[in-house]
Amino acid sequence: MNSIRLRSLPHLLLALVLTFAGIQQTAAQATADAKKEGVAPGATAAATPATAAAPAAGGGDAAAIAAGDALFKGNCAQCHAVNEQVVGPALAGISKRRPISWLIPWVKNSSKVVASGDDYAVALFNKFNKQQMPSFALSDKEITSIIAYVTSQEGGPVGGGVTAKNAAGTDGKDANAGTSGAEEGAGKYVDILLIVLVVVLIVLVVTLVIIGNLMKDVLRGRKDLDGRDVEILEQRFDWSKFYRSPVMRGIVGTVFALVLLYEGVQSVMAVGLTQGYQPTQPIAFSHKLHAGEHQINCAYCHTSVYKSKSANIPSANICMNCHSQIKTESPEIKKIYRAIERKQPIQWVRIHNLPDLAYFNHSQHTQVAGLQCQTCHGPIQNMEVVYQYSALTMGWCINCHREMPLNTKDNKYYDNLVKLHDTKNAGAPFTVSSNGGTECSKCHY
């Protein structure tokens, strides 16, 4: 009877460990499901339902407000907010302060309006330390849509974000607040449950060890035990036989050889691969702050991102559009001033490099294909210090061309090609590869 109890003790411990492992895995999966979030390829840094719900608050044409949202973030958000003064004045109520006939020429060429002697323009120019607003090559319709968007966002939170009414309708509550709160609550209770289970398991293990030692002490004092009970009571595990056995040595040797082989193959395959490269830059610039929190459009700094073979590195004068007024005493901003005073460019360290033998056109992917920055650069709006997110290898590019549907909408050049493709490959998507995107000469010329 006692021997049975002693033999079942390890089995009980093993059962407890396996049970806890199963509960932990289930809880971890529940936590992952509750808190799952991220940036899908092609998602934007500021993807919100603001434009879809905007008409509920400000009225107006939903399409115009949606277009104004994109134009505002791409051209105005760097210096203006709707309900807060940034570099320039808050734009809330702008349509009441100035007529549209005044606003359109002001946006197109503010310096011309100031030079004309317009009282309001001159007063505004002097109020903001004679900081000249850049001229914008926007159409009358585009400027009108920006004003429509600004009007729809008036009265929202500081910073010109989505108004409470826009986000949820008429009750002023965030439509996602209940969901996010439930997810956070579920995650919190799962964490508490895991802590309780860990404490209980530790207490059980300690208790079982104490009980086992007490049982052994009691049994050692008895003289009516048979030989089998004494053997079980006094048995010791011989570790020397374990690690000296040929089987164990063979397993260790095999694992060691496999690890060496794996590391060797990985080292060879990683030649020229710079994924994860994160150099120290001469100025501590935070994409998380600028592209994430302030939602500055990438094209504002990288001006050629939609129209050139490569996305240019921003010049110092682009930084000065804002930092001539904002955080002027910051040690990092003073580095920009010194570069301008010395008439020297800032020596930014390039992160994404392709070999000279490969041809890549940035505008073809961003403007024609309509890809978002995150597709290749990852969650750039969350990076304090930018690093190379994607592998940028030939295999990575080819896989993308095989899977990415080609944007043929409203492009007559592709009409016959799409018809021929659909005739021969019924149901299969018309991908970049279908248009010869995996041919060697496409990238190597």
From TrEMBL:
Positions of transmembrane segments: 192-215, 246-265
Signal peptide start and end residues: 1-21
Disordered: annotated span: 161-182
Domain of life, per lineage: Bacteria
Keywords: Electron transport, Heme, Iron, Membrane, Metal-binding, Signal, Transmembrane, Transmembrane helix, Transport
CDD domains the UniProt entry points to: Cytochrom_C3 (cd08168)
InterPro entries per UniProt: Cyt_c-like_dom, Cyt_c-like_dom_sf, Cyt_c_III_dom, Multihaem_cyt_sf
UniProt protein name: C-type cytochrome
Lineage: Bacteria, Pseudomonadati, Bacteroidota, Cytophagia, Cytophagales
